[in-house]
């Protein structure tokens, strides 16, 4: 497979080699895909990444453990605290820190709120790619509400740096549970509208059904995870397979779809939003309103030498962190397993044979966020 | 529901005497739109009633005087299309804002009313350069062809009884010719840009427009068969008792869809889509040349709904409240009815623009050739049959 | 006044027609041809046949130039070769022959032309000239089918 660019193939006179991105309204970030096009049909596709590489992993080797949490936020920037959790869990495991039940539930609530926020971004941008300009603004308004709720408690909206070893940094705002309950009521009304605009739209059906079919075997072979995997029929969710935080205490389902096409991926994300709302409703009831928000953790975080891998179910898939400690207060190595990074591997598979406008629909259904891919 | 309330001082700082442009004033917006519509109405009255009356009074009726009169009317219609563009671009942005839970332009003019003037100034101020590989003559000519084609549709549109520039008995054929001409301008623009991508974009846009011309022309023919004439004035007259939308319902639906495709409007705006790789036919255009393509699109955004009203909704028909038909007052009232009906249809088009995603290129071509043309033919035969048995 | 109009139209027709055959740029040539036909439609209007003028405009000055542009774009031919001297000679000869024919037709008809109304056109097409009309539509159908077959064969 060619690496840096596509060379013209002898005898293939009709093929145009065309560059898509990295500045492009529809590549969801800085993705560059070099395409071989025969008319409308894509014959070859080579994605190039790294335009947002910010050296996270190397930088984190020179930061103390609490400081690393602030860096992890910046990876998948639409998902906020979801990025902090695998690192925090790994270090808690290495140090044997107990997390009180209330702190677990609060963490899970924020986790699911950010899942909703991330899927809202996905929905708005996916519809924008398909040409509908209005849902983008509706979803971002709902996201504003979520970010407002987070801001009241954590002080920042997108990148709150809120989790810490043993729980969360500060207790939730007194309005938090009421705000969340109000938001869930609002969201349930909005989901009806979103279903009409997105899932039931005949134009969306025409653009996404049967487009970019990913078979189960290929999905597993490429290491795909998250909604993309579940849309190809594999019922694997880290929250059920390796439960963490408060997930064992709540009831929820994993939506899967046997089709594997772009519409299936749209549908699965929608159902995940419904499941998030369900989880949040249960947690609003279950979370004790008073109690510790943080467990006992040493003042100086110095895990014993060794390594630990923990994974969580990000909005995009399995986000994992391997923490290698050498006994000092700075990690020796922090390796992030980006969900979107592994998901991006199917781009050449799905693009080849598709029409060019289908490639935009496929890319939006994969929901890449380049902070996580390039780190 | 509201997120955390925004503290007052986070607003844009109001400019003078405590006037905060960011505050929503619906009454002011409605006033601004009414002002624009009023100016529009005045220009229509001036063009179709004022100028002929003036020339009649001066006695310059025949020969060169007639030519001068028509020329003056065309100049006034050009002014009208400028007002239409000003209003429609503003309404589009404000309406999209309403649908999308935001304000739209707010700063220039009362409630953003003069925004389009500044848009036009911006386009004027941009460097209108011609790419090195482009064929300069044709490059400059293409936007003019498109604009003139859209503008030329004004010649046959009847704003009120007798208020039409050219009351020919072949108005429909002229309309078909002129819509095809606007597709020609698009193609010329793409070909002369000297850019491979503009060429492909122009081919696509041209193919789309030409494919949807066929059901459009077939619906024109259906209306002509139903009304028994190719003249738009007579088609409107024939709708005195019954608006065409009822007996010709199928053709009406097809006409709306074909108009959307002619306008390259969502859901058929594939040639203009920014998120597709291959840039459109107007990628090399900037400044005033681009403004002409833009202006042509907005003039057509007014004219195609106007044609829907003419063909299916009784044109300028409406209760006259005892006014004498043919008088100035009756003409003014009828033109107001026409304007209001057209405004309703423009609003419906904008509503469609705000809501729907876009179809893929091959899907829209397939739809034209495999669905619309057979249905349009069926509608034509149906109309002919109905006319035979009803009249 | 209609005399002025005629002279203006005729002069511009000649200018554009000349430009169409002498320019090497195909796109400009196609455009000038379209303008020539548009001006001829104007001449039809002067002769009192708005129906014919509208049809001429619709077919020759709108639809055919689009087809020509498509052909130019698809075949990517932009410049035509300069005509050789014998070709120019044949052109002039053809023009002279045509002039003789048309002059005799004009003299024969004593310079008068019957205006054509759309009703007359329609009735004529569907009654007196029915066979040529049907044959023409069958011919168009054949051309369309042939084009599709040719395009399909090329694609695969």
Automatic annotation (TrEMBL), chain A:
GO CC: one term?
plasma membrane
> Which domain of life does the protein's organism represent?
Bacteria
Quote any Pfam family the record assigns: Complex1_49kDa
* Record EC number: 7.1.1.-
* Keyword GTP-binding tagged: no
InterPro entries xref list: NADH_Q_OxRdtase_suD, NDH1_su_D/H, NiFe-Hase_large
| GO MF annotation terms | NAD binding; NADH dehydrogenase (quinone) (non-electrogenic) activity; quinone binding
Listed under catalytic activity are:
a quinone + NADH + 5 H(+)(in) = a quinol + NAD(+) + 4 H(+)(out)
Query: NADH-quinone oxidoreductase subunit D domain: from which residue to which, for each copy?
Result: 129-299, 300-375
Query: Localized where?
Result: Cell membrane
The kind of enzyme this is, by top-level EC class, is: translocase
Query: How the protein sits in the membrane?
Result: Peripheral membrane protein
* Keywords assigned: Cell membrane, Membrane, NAD, Oxidoreductase, Quinone, Translocase, Transport
Q: Which PANTHER family match?
A: NADH DEHYDROGENASE [UBIQUINONE] IRON-SULFUR PROTEIN 2, MITOCHONDRIAL, NADH-UBIQUINONE OXIDOREDUCTASE 49 KDA SUBUNIT
Q: What does this protein do?
A: NDH-1 shuttles electrons from NADH, via FMN and iron-sulfur (Fe-S) centers, to quinones in the respiratory chain. The immediate electron acceptor for the enzyme in this species is believed to be a menaquinone. Couples the redox reaction to proton translocation (for every two electrons transferred, four hydrogen ions are translocated across the cytoplasmic membrane), and thus conserves the redox energy in a proton gradient.
Similarity field: Belongs to the complex I 49 kDa subunit family.
Instruction: Spell out the subunit comment.
Output: NDH-1 is composed of 15 different subunits. Subunits NuoB, C, D, E, F, and G constitute the peripheral sector of the complex.
What is the name attached to this protein's record? NADH-quinone oxidoreductase subunit D
What species was this sequence derived from? Oceanithermus profundus
From TrEMBL, chain B:
Q: What general EC class does the enzyme of this chain belong to?
A: translocase
| GO cellular-component term (any) | plasma membrane
Reading the lineage from the top rank, the first entry is: Bacteria
Reaction(s) catalysed (UniProt annotation): a quinone + NADH + 5 H(+)(in) = a quinol + NAD(+) + 4 H(+)(out)
Q: Sorted alphabetically, which InterPro entries does this protein's record hold?
A: NADH_UbQ_OxRdtase_su1/FPO, NADH_UbQ_OxRdtase_su1_CS
What membrane topology does this protein have?
Multi-pass membrane protein
Localization: Cell membrane; Membrane
Q: What is its EC number?
A: 7.1.1.-
Q: Which PROSITE patterns match?
A: COMPLEX1_ND1_2
| GO molecular function per UniProt | NADH dehydrogenase activity; oxidoreductase activity, acting on NAD(P)H, quinone or similar compound as acceptor; quinone binding
Tell whether Translocase is among the UniProt keywords.
Answer: yes
TM ranges are 31-51, 71-92, 144-166, 172-193, 214-236, 242-261, 290-316, 336-356, 368-390
- UniProt GO BP: aerobic respiration
The answer to whether UniProt assigns keyword Plastid to this entry is no
Q: Which UniProt keywords apply?
A: Cell membrane, Membrane, NAD, Oxidoreductase, Quinone, Translocase, Transmembrane, Transmembrane helix, Ubiquinone
Q: What is the role of the protein in this entry?
A: NDH-1 shuttles electrons from NADH, via FMN and iron-sulfur (Fe-S) centers, to quinones in the respiratory chain. The immediate electron acceptor for the enzyme in this species is believed to be ubiquinone. Couples the redox reaction to proton translocation (for every two electrons transferred, four hydrogen ions are translocated across the cytoplasmic membrane), and thus conserves the redox energy in a proton gradient. This subunit may bind ubiquinone.
Record HAMAP family: NDH1_NuoH (MF_01350)
Annotated family: Belongs to the complex I subunit 1 family.
> What is the annotated quaternary arrangement, including any partners?
NDH-1 is composed of 15 different subunits. Subunits NuoA, H, J, K, L, M, N constitute the membrane sector of the complex.
Protein name stated in the entry = NADH-quinone oxidoreductase subunit H
Look up and give the organism this protein is from. Oceanithermus profundus
The organism's taxonomy opens as:
Bacteria, Thermotogati, Deinococcota, Deinococci, Thermales
UniProtKB/TrEMBL annotation, chain C:
**For this UniProt entry, what's an example GO CC term?**
plasma membrane
Name the major location: membrane
Identify the keywords attached in UniProt to this record, alphabetized: Cell membrane, Membrane, NAD, Quinone, Transmembrane, Transmembrane helix
The record's section on Gene3D superfamilies has: NADH-ubiquinone/plastoquinone oxidoreductase chain 6, subunit NuoJ
- Tell me the membrane topology, using the record's own terms: Multi-pass membrane protein
Q: Which InterPro entries match?
A: NADH_UbQ/plastoQ_OxRdtase_su6, Nuo/plastoQ_OxRdtase_6_NuoJ
Record GO terms (molecular function):
NADH dehydrogenase (ubiquinone) activity; quinone binding
Cellular localization per UniProt: Cell membrane
Instruction: Quote the EC number.
Output: 7.1.1.-
**Segments crossing the lipid bilayer:** 6-22, 29-47, 53-74, 86-106, 126-151
Q: Which reaction does it catalyse?
A: a quinone + NADH + 5 H(+)(in) = a quinol + NAD(+) + 4 H(+)(out)
* General function of this protein: NDH-1 shuttles electrons from NADH, via FMN and iron-sulfur (Fe-S) centers, to quinones in the respiratory chain. Couples the redox reaction to proton translocation (for every two electrons transferred, four hydrogen ions are translocated across the cytoplasmic membrane), and thus conserves the redox energy in a proton gradient.
Q: Which family does it belong to?
A: Belongs to the complex I subunit 6 family.
Protein name, please?
Answer: NADH-quinone oxidoreductase subunit J
């Amino acid at each position: 497979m060619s690496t840096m660019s596509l060379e013209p193939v002898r005898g293939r006179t009709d093929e145009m080699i065309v560059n898509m991105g990295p500045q492009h309204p529809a590549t969801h970030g800085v993705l560059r895909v070099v395409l071989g096009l025969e008319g409308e049909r894509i014959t070859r596709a080579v994605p190039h990444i790294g335009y947002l590489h910010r050296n996270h992993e190397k930088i984190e080797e020179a930061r103390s453990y609490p400081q690393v949490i602030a860096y992890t936020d910046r990876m998948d920037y639409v998902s906020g605290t979801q990025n902090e959790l695998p690192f925090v869990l790994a270090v808690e495991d290495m140090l044997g820190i107990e997390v009180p039940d209330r702190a677990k539930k609060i963490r899970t609530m924020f986790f699911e709120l950010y899942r909703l926020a991330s899927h809202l971004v996905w929905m708005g941008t996916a519809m924008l790619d398909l040409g509908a300009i209005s849902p983008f603004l509706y979803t971002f308004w709902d996201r504003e509400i979520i970010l407002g709720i987070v801001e009241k408690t954590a002080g920042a909206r997108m990148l709150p740096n809120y989790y810490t070893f043993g729980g969360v940094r500060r207790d939730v705002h007194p309005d938090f549970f009421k705000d969340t309950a109000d938001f869930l009521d609002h969201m349930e009304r909005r989901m009806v509208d979103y279903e009409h605009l997105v899932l039931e739209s005949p134009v969306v059906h025409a653009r996404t059904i049967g487009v970019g079919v990913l078979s189960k075997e290929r999905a597993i072979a490429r290491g795909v995870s998250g909604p993309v995997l579940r849309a190809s029929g594999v019922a694997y969710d880290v929250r059920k397979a390796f439960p963490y935080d408060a997930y064992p205490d709540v009831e929820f389902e994993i939506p899967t779809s046997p089709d594997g096409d772009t519409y299936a991926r749209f549908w699965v994300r929608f159902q995940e939003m419904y499941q998030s709302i369900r989880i949040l409703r249960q947690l609003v009831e279950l979370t004790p309103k008073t109690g510790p928000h943080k467990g006992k953790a040493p003042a100086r975080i110095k895990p014993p030498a060794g390594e630990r891998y923990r994974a969580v179910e990000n909005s995009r898939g399995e986000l994992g962190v391997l923490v290698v400690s050498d006994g000092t207060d700075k990690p020796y190595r922090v390796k992030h397993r980006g969900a979107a990074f592994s998901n991006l591997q199917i781009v050449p598979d799905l693009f080849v044979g598709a029409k060019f406008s289908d490639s935009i629909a496929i890319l939006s259904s994969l929901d890449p966020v380049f902070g996580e891919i390039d780190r | 529901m509201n997120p955390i309330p925004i503290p007052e001082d986070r607003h844009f700082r109001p400019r003078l005497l405590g006037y905060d442009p960011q505050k929503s004033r619906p009454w002011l917006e409605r006033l601004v739109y009414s002002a624009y519509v009023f100016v529009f109405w005045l220009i229509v009255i001036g063009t179709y009633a004022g100028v002929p009356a003036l020339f009649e009074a001066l006695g310059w009726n025949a020969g060169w005087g007639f030519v001068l009169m028509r020329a003056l009317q065309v100049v006034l219609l050009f002014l009208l299309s400028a007002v239409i563009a000003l209003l429609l671009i503003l309404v589009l942005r404000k309406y999209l804002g309403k649908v999308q839970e935001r304000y739209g332009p707010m700063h220039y003019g009362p409630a953003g009313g003069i925004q389009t003037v500044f848009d036009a100034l911006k386009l004027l101020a941009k460097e209108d350069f011609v790419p090195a590989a482009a064929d300069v003559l044709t490059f400059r000519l293409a936007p003019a062809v498109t604009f003139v084609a859209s503008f030329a549709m004004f010649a046959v549109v009847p704003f009120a009884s007798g208020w039409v520039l050219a009351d020919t008995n072949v108005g429909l054929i002229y309309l078909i010719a002129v819509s095809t001409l606007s597709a020609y301008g698009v193609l010329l623009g793409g070909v002369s840009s000297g850019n491979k991508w503009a060429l492909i974009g122009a081919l696509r846009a041209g193919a789309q427009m030409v494919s949807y011309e066929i059901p459009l022309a077939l619906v024109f023919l259906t209306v002509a068969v139903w009304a028994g004439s190719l003249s738009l004035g007579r088609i409107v007259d024939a709708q005195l008792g019954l608006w065409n939308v009822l007996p010709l319902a199928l053709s009406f639906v097809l006409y709306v869809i074909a108009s959307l495709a002619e306008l390259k409007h969502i859901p058929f705006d594939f040639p203009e889509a920014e998120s597709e790789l291959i840039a459109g036919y107007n990628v090399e255009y900037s400044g005033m040349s681009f403004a002409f393509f833009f202006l042509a699109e907005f003039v057509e955004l007014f004219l195609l709904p106007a044609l829907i009203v003419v063909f299916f909704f009784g044109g300028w028909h409406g209760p006259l409240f005892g006014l004498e038909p043919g008088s100035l007052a009756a003409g003014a009232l009828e033109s107001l009815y026409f304007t209001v009906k057209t405004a309703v249809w423009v609003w419906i088009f904008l509503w469609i623009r705000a809501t729907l995603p876009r179809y893929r290129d091959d899907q829209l071509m397939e739809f034209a050739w495999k669905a619309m043309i057979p249905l349009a033919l069926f509608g034509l035969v149906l109309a002919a049959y109905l006319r035979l048995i009803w009249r | 006044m209609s005399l002025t109009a005629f002279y203006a139209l005729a002069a511009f027709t000649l200018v554009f027609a000349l430009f169409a055959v002498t320019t090497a740029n195909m796109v400009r040539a196609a455009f000038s041809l379209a303008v020539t036909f548009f001006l001829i439609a104007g001449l039809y209007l002067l002769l009192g046949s708005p129906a014919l003028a509208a049809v001429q405009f619709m077919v020759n000055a709108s639809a055919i130039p689009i087809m020509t542009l498509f052909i130019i774009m698809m075949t990517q031919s932009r410049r035509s070769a300069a005509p050789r001297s014998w070709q120019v000679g044949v052109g002039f000869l053809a023009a002279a022959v045509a002039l003789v024919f048309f002059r005799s037709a004009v003299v024969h008809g004593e310079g008068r032309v019957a205006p054509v109304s759309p009703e007359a056109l329609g009735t004529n097409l569907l009654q007196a000239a029915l066979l040529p009309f049907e044959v023409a539509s069958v011919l168009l159908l054949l051309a369309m089918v042939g084009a599709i077959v040719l395009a399909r064969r090329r694609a695969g």
